[in-house]
Amino acid sequence: MVFPYLFLPIVLISSFLYLLSFLFVRMDIISVVTHRKIWNSVLLITFLATAILGLLLVVQINYKLEWAFVKTILKWHVDFGIAMSFAAVIHLTWHFKYYLKLVKSVKKDDQSNHNILKSETEKIQKLSLIILLSGFISTLVQVLFLREITTIFQGNELMLAWALGIWMLLTGTGAFLGRKFKTEINYTHIIKIVFITIAIVPFVNLIVLILIKNSLFPPGMLVHPLWFILIVFAVFSTICLLSGLLFPVFTRISGNSKNNFIKVYAYETIGCLFGGLAVSFLLIKWIDVPGSLIIIAVIIFIILFYVFRKKYSFWASCCLY
């Protein structure tokens, strides 16, 4: 049975994202204020989309306009309305007492939250968030490209093993090169450049991967293992070296003690776990590879904007605990 509206997928995805952001609050990765700003923004975006699409439907019905895409507009209108309803329920639970008592919100709590953002706790949270993002993004890109390589080159288990081995080798090489950085290097600029590159390069690699396959190898022809290895090295080199480079950078920023090294590894592993869940249950099932790469780039830029929006640099004095 085909359902006309995506009620269950929208509710499940929204619930997963809300639980994920709530978990980040409980882990002190993001603040309560940021958590609420995210979902208030979701409520605003879904409301605007629902309202605009609803007005278009009103115009079409009142003036009897022959729009071929009216069914699409109606479907989008309902789907955005479902998402808006979910965000509205969350908003209602936050301000239930406000609606009961019909009094103005107390601004002192917001002021105290802003004071917390200026403390050392925010610096630790931001560094932890960046480390989580590193593991999350590396897992997403790795799985997506492994699947894409298997599809484009009609690969078997041996080719998949070679691709995975090359990924691990290049990532380890990047981590080794990261150890050579000197202490006086500006790590803030390095992190910005690395993440921006990781957000952009996968699009280029995907295009190059498809062009190489279509230009050099006729359809139905199996790729020679040597050519396959060289192509995988060329496609993976930038992403793997940069993602591997981040681990020693994070360790250097947080302090070189054994305790901080373990925490960096733990946060990156948690990010990899969430990345595996996201790519398995969301991206692969609902979105194609180019769309997934767009979502990854958007996530990177949003988090970079949140972490580096302050004018001062917190990395020099930042440690995990």
Question: What is the compact description of this entry?
Answer:
This protein is mainly α. Helix content is 80%, strand content 0%.
Walk me through this protein's architecture.
The chain has 321 residues and is mainly alpha-helical. It folds into two domains: 7-114; 119-317, Growth Hormone, Chain: A (Up-down Bundle), CATH 1.20.1250.20. It is built from eleven helices and no strands. Helix 1 (7-26) runs parallel beside helix 3 (70-94) and helix 6 (120-152) packs antiparallel against helix 11. The longest helix is centred in the middle third of the chain and has 33 residues, at 120-152. The chain is flat. Mean pLDDT is 76; it is low at 103-118 and 311-321.
Which properties best describe this structure?
single chain; 321 residues; mainly alpha; Growth Hormone, Chain: A; 2 domains; 11 helices; 80% helix; disordered C terminus
Annotate the secondary structure layout.
Elements: H1 7-26, H2 32-62, H3 70-94, H4 96-101, H5 107-117, H6 120-152, H7 157-178, H8 187-216, H9 225-254, H10 258-286, H11 289-308
**Looking at CATH, which topology of the largest domain would you report?**
Growth Hormone, Chain: A
Mind summarizing the main beta sheet?
none
Mean of the pLDDT scores? 76
Specify the CATH class of the largest domain: Mainly Alpha
Low-confidence stretches: 103-118, 311-321
| Overall SS class | mainly alpha
CATH architecture descriptor name of the largest domain: Up-down Bundle
Shape: flat
Radius of gyration from CA coordinates = 23 Å
Task: Report the CATH superfamily of the largest domain.
Answer: MFS general substrate transporter like domains
Order of helices and strands: HHHHHHHHHHH
**What is the helix content?**
over 70%
Residues in β-strands, percent: under 5%
Q: How many strand elements?
A: 0
Distance between the termini: 53 Å
**How many individual helices?**
11
